[in-house]
Amino acid sequence: MKNLFNKQDIFSLKWKILIAVFSLSIAIGVYVAANYLNTEMTRAVQTARAELQNARTAVDQIEQEEATIIEYIGRFQELESEGIVNAEDRLLLLERITEIRENNDLFPISVSIGEQSSLRLLYDPTESAPGGPIDLNATELELSLPLLHENDLTSLLSELLGSPGLFLTQECSMNLNNPSITNYIMLGQHQTAKCNLLWFTFDVEPPPVEAAFF
User: Fold this and answer.
1) How far apart are CA 214 and CA 119, in angstroms?
2) Residue 159 within any structural domain of the chain
3) Could you report the per-residue pLDDT of 122-170, keeping only the tens digit for each?
4) From CA 181, how far away is CA 187, in angstroms rounded?
5) What's the CA gap between 209 and 38, in Å, rounded?
6) Measured between alpha carbons, how far apart are the two ends of the chain, in Å?
7) Per the database entry, which stretches of residues form a coiled coil (predicted)?
8) How far apart are CA 148 and CA 205, in angstroms?
């Protein structure tokens, strides 16, 4: 039987097959490489998006913290201007009471200032970044004065509670100096009033040892 292919044809066919196999290998390699690059690019894009989201979250958190700091600074400045976060100034308090008395033409006011007691304030357990220690200080005040009429006591308390500082009225009492008197046309010290108050201040730099609260 006669061979249909001579050596040259077979050699040429082998080269064509080799070229086809080589081309197919290149095509497969290009496909695999392209698929790998596409996967890596997709992963890189996802990573970049995640990093961008993290950066945006961090920026938002910084902005929120900044707003919180500004808010608390404003509140602290308000408290400071009210004299609440400052140390007790008993002389200033006495001067203020004297000024109230003069402004309202009151009888002399007797002032008794007790000892100061303190309470260490606790932060919320969920607070991630609590600040430094803060003590709430409380001092008992006792005010007593003769009254021409009840409005004298109202004027005293109204101006004192409305002045800088944090005061809490605990109780007040009024007694007639002479219960037998029925004619109040004559000016005089018809009644005597006594009030007990608490004077609060905050200490933002307290001593390390906690003191017992009243």
Assistant:
1) 8
2) yes
3) 777 777 766 777 788 889 999 999 887 778 889 999 999 888 888 889 9
4) 12
5) 65
6) 124
7) 38-82
8) 44
Asked if 107 and 165 sit in the same domain, the reply is yes
Residues 77 and 156 in one domain: no
Range of the domain at 117: 90-203
Q: What is the pTM of this model?
A: 0.56
Residue with tokens 């086809």: 20
Report the domain count for the chain.
2
Phi, psi of 113 (to 5 degrees): -110, 120
HSE at residue 205, side-chain half, CA atoms within 13 A, is: 2
Query: What are the backbone dihedrals phi and psi of residue 78, each rounded to the nearest 5 degrees, phi first?
Result: -65, -45
Region for 95 from its dihedrals, namely left if φ exceeds 0, alpha if ψ lies in -120 to 50, beta otherwise: alpha
Q: Which of 203, 79, 192 lies closest to 139, judged by CA?
A: 203
Tell me the C-alpha distance between 195 and 143, whole Å: 5
Cβ atoms within 10 Å of 93's Cβ, excluding its own: 20
Place of tokens 């008992």: 140
